[in-house]
Design goal:
Length: 174
């Protein structure tokens, strides 16, 4: 019979997690790039980007929970919500990059648009990796914080300062 401890996966190191993040997130991002380009021929680009961002974020969060960060199962609602926050920031970055491109180039071609979009996505992706690894999929964060808070002894200077010092003690200290 499988124990709870054997079911729990070990969190991968930073390099392995980043490689998996690039594979999963990059694969989803690349597919999303083409989906945005295709969908934007029917609806405004900003709306197409928003729709694809929502779908790709749900998919990528599940992949990251199960594979990238070794969370050992499906992503929780909290993880989806936190991941959505980082995806919203990435959405703003890609929109700003595309708006800047529209301001700088009168009629950018599809290849230039893809280069700008993917570059902005890569920049936002590195920031998302940090947020997902350090915040969203961090393990035992609350347990570690509680241990640090309860295990830390009260500094001696604080304990001694609670009793008022008499004039003789103050003179000796000077």
């Amino acid at each position: 019979m499988e124990t709870a401890q054997s079911r729990q996966q070990v969190a991968p190191g930073a390099f392995v997690a980043f490689a998996r993040f690039v594979l999963c997130g990059g694969g989803v991002g690349l597919a999303s790039s083409f989906a945005v380009a295709a969908l934007s021929s029917w609806i405004p680009w900003v709306l197409a980007n928003a729709l694809i961002t929502v779908v790709s974020t749900l998919l990528a969060t599940e992949l990251h929970a199960r594979f990238t960060f070794g969370a050992g199962g499906r992503a929780t609602r909290r993880q989806h919500a936190q991941s959505a926050g980082s995806a919203a920031a990435a959405y703003v970055v890609t929109c700003m990059a595309m708006l800047a491109l529209q301001q700088l180039v009168a009629a950018p071609g599809a290849v230039l648009q893809q280069v700008v979009y993917l570059s902005a996505s890569a920049l936002a992706g590195v920031a998302r990796f940090a947020v997902l690894r350090l915040v969203v999929f961090a393990r035992n964060r609350s347990q570690a914080a509680a241990t640090v808070r309860t295990a830390r002894p009260l500094p001696a200077t604080v304990a001694r300062a609670s009793a008022p010092a008499g004039p003789a003690a103050l003179c000796r200290a000077a």
